[in-house]
Automatic annotation (TrEMBL):
Residues 13-262 form the DAHP synthetase I/KDSA domain. The keyword Protease does not apply. Its EC number is 2.5.1.54. It is an enzyme of class 2 (transferase). This is 3-deoxy-7-phosphoheptulonate synthase. It comes from Phaeodactylibacter luteus.
Length: 264
């Protein structure tokens, strides 16, 4: 169902308020790795508004390698975020980790993110297939393109056709950076499927100084948008600070991305 052989026209996903994701437009989603406080949310929204970015990312349920690391503010964080984002006309994308979280989160979320670690959580995928919200599905940590497409198939076959695929880097033998951004996958996914493809250059390389280059390469490979981590003080971020851009760095990248998309 997610194959171009089955549906020729590319899928465009409407978020309402004239916002659409998919072939023909370029979407930017930006925000912190984790939602940390009301002040941080306000500051991020001000940054996004000034930059013309309409979708804010942020985790309230965080899959962390260590159980002792910051695991997110949960529903409380999502509610305060939602209140401020709605006032500002900003859409929310956030990760859902388990089936039980979907229902309470639903009214506060514009796009559900499935993280790399849950990319093959088939019960979660089935459940998200029955929900009236777009889903951004990340590629598994060691997931193949075929496995990503099959995961999308779970959601689609349950009735939810509003899916975007996300390349966020895969685990390889290379230890010089956090993940190996598979630019190849972006070009190939665009050829194989009608679904929008979003690049995550932050997790894709995991090092702040290279995020801009990888983001721009992703655009040239055919990405319909990027999701990236930004923070007022990246070095103080509760998670993923090493790969997070400052507002100033992010502003420069947004304009280069828009230019690159126009040139493509
Ligand atoms: C995130 O977006 O912060 C995240 C945890 O991503 P991933 O699932 O790709 O590791
Ligand atoms: Mn992160």
């Amino acid at each position: 169902l997610v194959s171009k052989k089955w549906r020729v026209e590319d899928t465009r996903i409407s978020l309402g308020d004239g916002l659409e994701i998919g072939t023909g437009s370029f979407s930017i989603m930006a925000g912190p790795c984790s939602i940390e406080s009301a002040a941080q949310v306000e500051e991020t929204i001000a940054h996004l508004k000034a930059a013309g970015v309409r979708i804010m990312r942020g985790g309230v349920y965080k899959p962390r390698s260590s159980p002792y690391a910051f695991r997110g503010l949960g529903m409380e964080g999502l509610k305060l975020w939602h209140e401020k984002a709605r006032e500002a006309g900003i859409k929310i994308i956030t990760e859902v980790m388990m089936v039980e979280q979907i229902e309470p989160m639903l009214e506060y979320v514009d796009i559900f993110q499935v993280g790399a670690r849950n990319s093959q959580n088939f019960n979660l995928l089935d459940a998200l297939g029955q929900v009236d919200r777009p889903v951004l599905l990340k590629r598994g940590i060691s997931g193949t393109i075929e496995e990503l497409l099959q995961a999308a198939e779970y959601i689609f076959s349950n009735g939810n056709e509003r899916i975007m695929l996300c390349e966020r880097g895969i685990r390889s033998y290379e230890g010089a950076y956090r993940n190996t951004m598979d630019i190849n996958a972006i070009a190939m996914l665009k050829a194989k499927t009608h679904l929008p493809v979003i690049a995550d250059p932050s997790h894709g390389i995991g090092l702040r100084q290279f995020v801009d280059k990888i983001a721009l390469a992703s655009v040239m490979a055919g990405a319909d948008g990027v999701i990236m981590e930004v923070h007022g003080q990246p070095e103080k971020a509760f998670s993923d600070g090493q790969q997070t851009l400052s507002y100033q760095e992010a502003n420069r990248l947004y304009s280069r991305l828009r230019q690159a998309f126009e040139l493509r």
